[in-house]
Each structure stands twice: as C-alpha cells, then as structure tokens.
Request: fold
Amino acid sequence: MSSMQFGIFSVSDITQDPTTGRTPSEHERIKGWIAMAKKAEEVGLDVFAAGEHHNPPFFSSSPTTILGYIAAQTERLILSTATTLITTNDPVKIAEDFAMLQHLSDGRADLTLGRGNTGPVYPWFGKDIRDGIELAIENYALLRKLWTEPVVNWAGKHRTPLTGYTSTPAPLDGVAPFVWHGSIRSPQIAEQAAYYGDGFFHNNIFWNKEHTERMVRLYRARFSHYGHGAPEEAIVGLGGQVFMKPTEREAKERFRPFFDVAPVYGHGPTLEEFTEMTPLTVGTPEQVIERTLGFRDYVGDYQRQLFLIDHAGLPLEEVLEQIEILGTEVVPVLRQEFDRVRQPGVPDAPTHAARVARAREAGTQLGEQGSAWKEQGARSDLDTGAAIARQADEQESEVAR
Amino acid sequence: MKPRIAVVSAGLGEPSSTKLLADRLRDATLRALAGHGQHAEPVDIVLRPLAGDIASHMLTHNPSEALDAAIKEVIDAEAIIAVTPTFNMSYSGLFKSFFDVIEEGQLASIPTALGATGGSARHSMVMDTAMRPMFAYLKAQVVPTGVFAASEDWGTDSGLDRRIEREGKELADLMVALPRRREADPFDTSSEAFVSFEQMLGHA
Reply:
C-alpha cells in the first residue's frame, strides 16, 4: 500500500432514480454495497467506508454487520465508517463491535467518529442533541479506555458507571483500530483529534473549501501543540464527490437529472454553481485528477481520500462504472502525482501492521483479555471467569434447593 | 480601515422606496457621526439580486461568492441599518431569509437602526411587532427610534425627515458610546476565549 489510501464512502440513501422513476429496495441497495465494495477491491482501491443512519431513506443502521460481511469476501480492502455515531451509540458497544470487526478482518478495520446530523436520532436513543459535543468527548474518552485498559473502572455523566469491566474481544494484537474524527465545522472536534493524536477527516463534499481548510489548519496546529509531531505529521482524510464520463459534456448530461433533484442540494443551485462552490467534480477523469490534486493546496499532504459516488439514485451499474474509472484511470495517477510532490517526513496512511510495529517498539502493546490485567494483579472479585463460575454455582444451589 | 456601516435593504421594486429610506437613514447617520468627529464607510447591501443565492444557501449551506461577501460585510460592520418593506403584517420573507442564513451570535451587540416601508401608516407596528423581536433575539443593540415610511410620507410634511435625523443621530451616538464587542474567533488558538481539550475534559 502506498503513502495514501483511496476509496469510496457512502451515506446509504435510498433514492429514486429520477431518469427512470425506479426506487431500489432496501435489499437491493444493501446487496449493492457488497457489489461496490468487491468492485473497489478488484480495481485496486484501498477503503470502503459505511455511513450510519437510523431513519429512512437510509439503510445503514448496522455498519459492523455489513462490514463484517464484506470483510469475509475481500482480502485487502480496509473497512471503515463515515461516520460512526459517537454521540448516540454506547461506547461500550462500539468498542466490542469494532474490535470484533478488527479480528474478523485481520486488522483491516478502522473507524471515523462523528456526531450525526439528524435531530430526532438523539431522543430516539435517549440522548439530547444539545449534549452533542459533550457526548462525543465523554464517549470517546471511555472508548479509548476500553481499548487500552484491560479492566475499566469508569464513571461519567451520560452512561451508567462501569466497575471491573473488560471489553471483549481485546483489540487484535493489542492495538486498537485507528480512529478518525470527522467534523464539518466544530473546532472542538478538530481539537479532540489533535489532543489524542488521532486522524481528522473532513467530508469535504457539501460545503465550501474554507470550512475544510480552517478545520484542518486548526487540527494540524493543535496536533503539534499536544506533542504528537510537526503539523505536517498529522493524519488527514478528505472526502470528495465525483461523476465521470469520457467527456465533460456526457458527464454533465448524465449526472444533471440526478443532481437537480438530489437530496441535500437538489432544487437549489445549478450543477455549475455547485461545482464552483464545493469540491464536486462532474467531468472527465482528467478533470477529477486535477481537482483532487488541488485539495493538497489547502490541506497539505494528506493520507486518505474517499469519494462519494453512489447517492442521489444513481443506479448500481453506473456506480460500479464510476468505481472502475476511479480504480483504473484516476487513482493510479493520483498515487503517482501525490507521491511525487509529497514532502519528506509526511507519515504514510495508517495500517494495522504499521501500528502494531510501532506499539511493539514503544512497548504499548496489550495482551489478550485476562492475561494483561492478571499480570497487573487485578482483584479476583473482578475476574469475569470467576464471576461466571460463581454465578453458575449459585444457580446450581438454587436448583438443588 | 474605516469602520463600516452595513445598509441592508430588502425592497423589491426598482426604484425602491425601501432603498430610498435606507439611503436617507445612512446619510443621517454619517452626518451625526461627523458631528462626533468620526467617519464611517457605508456599504449598501441590496438583497433583491441575492434572492436566488439566499434560497440556494438555505438548501445547501453554501453561500455564493456574492452572498458570502454580503454576509461578511454585515457581520464585520460596526453598525447595521436594516430596512424592509411590510408584507402581511411583517418583514418580507427575503429580509428574514437573509438574516436566517447568518450564523447565530454573529450580530450580538451590533448597533442597529431599523426602518420599514408600507402602503399606509396603519402598517407601522411592523417595527415593534416583528423587527424588534427578531433583532432582540439576535442580541443586536437597537436604537429606540424606528422610522416607518408610508407612501404618503414621501409627499407630505409628515415629519419623516425629522424622524430620520433623530434615528441617524441615535445610531451614531450608540456607535460612539457602546461600540460592538466582538465574539472571539473559536479557531483563534491565541485568544483567551479558545477552549482547549484539557478544558473540555475538565482537566484544566
């Protein structure tokens, strides 16, 4: 794998194809994602990232299920998210689910945390949207503990306390999945990513580039402030949105009907206006290459580039064609060109193997569940196995009575 | 750079009596400021040509270049003069929409003068029933006088000039006495208001 990772990300919308009037079923779209992920691996892309939503017209409510299924059918593809809701999910469940995915995929899993943008999701999951930032901070602090401490004793404001809790399975090779923090415009989240030395991801699709630039600049400066290295050593990921055909005219003709009525930006600015305002590129593979290389001008050398290519009702065949073009015509040139201009000292995109090697070197690698904390002389009454045995004894004696 | 006064007018006609009132309030303010030995540069922000861009911004969160420039002029100004025609007992939808796409908090403490136009003086309550509550919500400092100009005011000696002069003077006085306090830029790490992650965690 090269210094940068390229891939696709999806919000999982089920939208009518405005050119045919046909709306795919949930089943079709879910299976479509599998086809997209397999195609992505086949044409040499590195990452498939799944969005998370809990309301129609979206289907991706259970990302680790679908990513686990994809992991079983691929060999190299990194399974990621865009984004995992750190606000409304229980961090305990995130720790378990993604460690499990990490094991099943042999380390090909990482995740991007986000707050989510649908107001009612918070109350549906028993939270308050006004606590969004606070939840992101508290829940992630707990998630880190669960992945780095064998036995967790914890108390916070938004979740029931944990005493003697061991998250299972422990992260693969004792090294937690790499974490990106995604935010469009909240400086607190750039600050959070910087504090922990984690990655920062900007979706870079629906908003103008000033937001992206300002967020990445803050993240890099603070990454350095917190002692993780020079600003250029921070780990940055970007989104982007493209649609390609052999000529710009064909691309615009084909994409315009989807654009004009698309959720999020439809019925608003023209395709041309939106292309000017945002990183959206509708044109030839060469135009996409040129535009994407330009992202570096405002964020610096970065590690991951994901493209949104399957929304607004585009039919699966069309989406697979876009992945094909990305893999065969766009990404090979981007790899070469980005590498050519890359400044020395810029870190490679994060992989499990590299993180394990670094943890070994630094001596921060953890053992399997049980082993590490027994060595640390933990209390036996907090031993999960002993607790189960004791429970079984109690049940037996109940039955005996 | 000279302090600027953003003169926002939401008239739809061309020529527009709303713009005319805005111009008069602007000139009165500049004269009164000169009386304090101060100068300001007025920037006219006419909303009509931005109407499509404002709607697009609401749908996509993306301001066009022209709208972005207009918003920056308003939030960076030292004072606002805001004038709207009266529609259905209230400010026009265009007037409201422009202020709706400005982020919350950006107009806090800004000295503001309000004006409105309408077919007859029976609409003059618009200033107190619609405009003042909105600017109160935005935490702007609004001067006591608000000038309403009905069609007939432009042809009779109804004291319109006197009211305009008074409001201009009030805005100038307020700008001098209580200039706006700017919110710290949340991205400015050197500012005292910047919140570090240690603070967010409750460690500092």
Remarks:
- Chain A touches chain B through 29 residues (CB under 8 Å).
